[in-house]
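Journal club prep, notes for RB
We'll compare a predicted complex against what the paper describes. Inputs for the S-adenosylmethionine case:
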Amino acid sequence: MPLSELVSPGAANTNLETLITRKNNTLVIPEGLATIPCTHGIHRFAGKFIPNLPRYLLRELMPPMRTRVILDPFCGSGTTLVEAALEGKPFIGMDIDPLSVFISSAKTQLLSNNQLSTLEKFWAQHDFSKGHPEVIPAVPNINHWFTDKTLDELSSIKFRCKTLPPKLKLFSLVVFSSILRRVSNADDQTQKTYVSHTLPKTPPSPSVLFPRFLNRAIKGMREYASRLPTSPNGIVRQGDAANDIAALEFDDVITSPPYIDSIDYVYNQMLEYFWLLDELGIYSHKNYLAMRKQPMGFRTCTKNIATIFLKKYLTGAEESFETICSKIGEANPKEELTVRSFFFDYARHIEQVSAKQRKNGTYACIVGNSLIRGITVPTDDLVTRIHINAGYKLVAKYTYEIRRHYMKFPRRNNSGKIKQDYVLIFKA
Ligand SMILES: C[S@@+](CC[C@H](N)C(=O)[O-])C[C@H]1O[C@@H](n2cnc3c(N)ncnc32)[C@H](O)[C@@H]1O
């Protein structure tokens, strides 16, 4: 049965505000907007949407029918999916990164009040001093990241998570993973997982932080449950947006692909991976390292393959694209290939989406331009060109200012902070 037939109509969920307004082509996001209601705050994730943005898009720019399936093919931590569920719409989330799939699954699943009370009782009786060395990651320099006491306490939590039934285990493990960076010696402010010698840190202990984060997550889940107009109806799966779209049935898309060469999710979430390797089905450090080359913006394909394919999808922009690529290539040939591969993958993604998306379906894409080797890559224009060459119409283009950067430092010495994002609305 298609997902859309499983949706039962419920009352419109008007009690969560979008608070976003539009002034001409600018989306105005109020200063100090609280962004963590419901399950959104369970896990900190670089580059995630403020929930109000997909909520605004779902309400103002998407066809309103509850039967329309929303796809986010680069779902990250699942912000779009949670919002789709809150609007009573079926959803499909996809991400190449198993940790993203893990987090999104925990945030979109529904836990009943009874299950949450069971969880509260379960963790209230937890003895943090009962370490389980067998679940401590077998990483040679583990003490660089965690003190012995922290390792003991973390292992006590991880071990007990494993004894829970599947949905409660998933929820607890995601809360567990959300404290890892904080309780480690690694700096909290930067994307990169590194121990700063200039800003030494006194990390809180897991026995203090886990109960706090768990309580907050449970509160968020209760709010999510109370605001859902109908049971969440969706799936989250691991997959490659440039290859695995053909198997999906969907109507509308809300997504934000990664920025080129910007957030190295796999590297930046190293500690979370170390502790969850087995749960994520990765099993070895070697497999973990191989994953770093998988996401768009970090892959490279040959220049020839990219050029041949992109001829079709960048018609009308080939010349400017070539100029940008060769300028970047002069400074760093590998980065040139990264840029070429990024658009190659995006074009392959759109080729597949356009073959599946129903007529009049909406594709809302949030992108930011990148500054690579001092050269601006106009991602908004190039992405628009790809959509148009695949048969889409650009029906609206908005900008908004990024107010709250997750990270305080620029991404790299040779890159810059992205200050503005674009919301591109296409019709199939
Ligand atoms: C900007 S983030 C999305 C954040 C998301 N909107 C949120 O609110 O959490 C981009 C995501 O794209 C994923 N990604 C990168 N390459 C991909 C690919 N080829 N297929 C699917 N997902 C990919 C990354 O793992 C990352 O989670």
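Talking point for the session: Residues 1-12, 405-416 have pLDDT under 50 and may be disordered.
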